[in-house]
Amino acid sequence: MTSPLPARPRRKSRSLTEEVVSALSEQIRAGTFRPGDKLPTESAIMESLGVSRTVVREAISRLQAAQLVETRHGIGTFVLEAPRENALQVDTNSILTMLDVMAILELRISLETEAAGLAANRRTDTQLKAMRQALDDFEMHVRQRTGNAVTADVAFHLQVASATGNRYFHDILEQLGNTIIPRTRVNSAALADDDQVSYLNRVNREHEDIYNAIARRDPEAARAAMRTHLTNSRERLRRAQESAGTQS
């Protein structure tokens, strides 16, 4: 892939090299450039971002040090598979009980509340469209009762994490995978004495509140909406656990 990068404004507080590193690494982590793809030429990057050849070469060197790319002399620079050896690992196999799921929700409340606020400040129009698509997919699956709403639900939360511009938010949630949605391990609707469609419609309204706050770039409202959404999930599970305890 050799399509040029879009021009982007530079912040005065960051060096030109850091700006190029950021631009290229964001494209790689967003999947615009996938493992095996060839990056644009030095000249193309220079023209797109308005920097010198020295800056581009320094940026490429930093990406090489981070094991994001490799340069093959006389051929070009290619994207590598993202290194995972030193990444933070969450053992999802240990998430077995309702108490485990509630513990994950506590982690998510802290993590995703801040992620929503950052996303409201940093999201791009493209990222916002991806969030909208995930919510539309969620609504479609609920309406058609296909049973695939979880995939769209996970996609929405991952899109919010991506919009922070901080890959670690996304990395942690991606590791958790479908376990970030409690109903993949327990039937939340049944435990909440609710029918599945009504339950999922309520979840989607909570998603819409998060989306709308991010869309209008209101970080405090986004944080509040995400906290409400995840706290509601935790509360439903807490009530379910108490109910199960009284029946045992």
From TrEMBL:
Region of interest called Disordered, as start-end residue ranges on this chain: 222-248
Gene3D superfamilies found in the cross-reference section: GntR ligand-binding domain-like (1.20.120.530), Winged helix-like DNA-binding domain superfamily/Winged helix DNA-binding domain (1.10.10.10)
Keyword Translocase: no
Superkingdom per UniProt: Bacteria
Species this chain originates from: Pandoraea anhela
Entry keyword set: DNA-binding, Transcription, Transcription regulation
Compositionally biased spans, kind Basic and acidic residues: 232-241
InterPro entries reported in the protein's UniProt record: GntR_C, TF_FadR/GntR_C, Tscrpt_reg_HTH_GntR, WH-like_DNA-bd_sf, WH_DNA-bd_sf
GO molecular function list: DNA binding; DNA-binding transcription factor activity
Domain HTH gntR-type: residue ranges: 14-82
Signal peptide: none
Protein name, entry field: GntR family transcriptional regulator
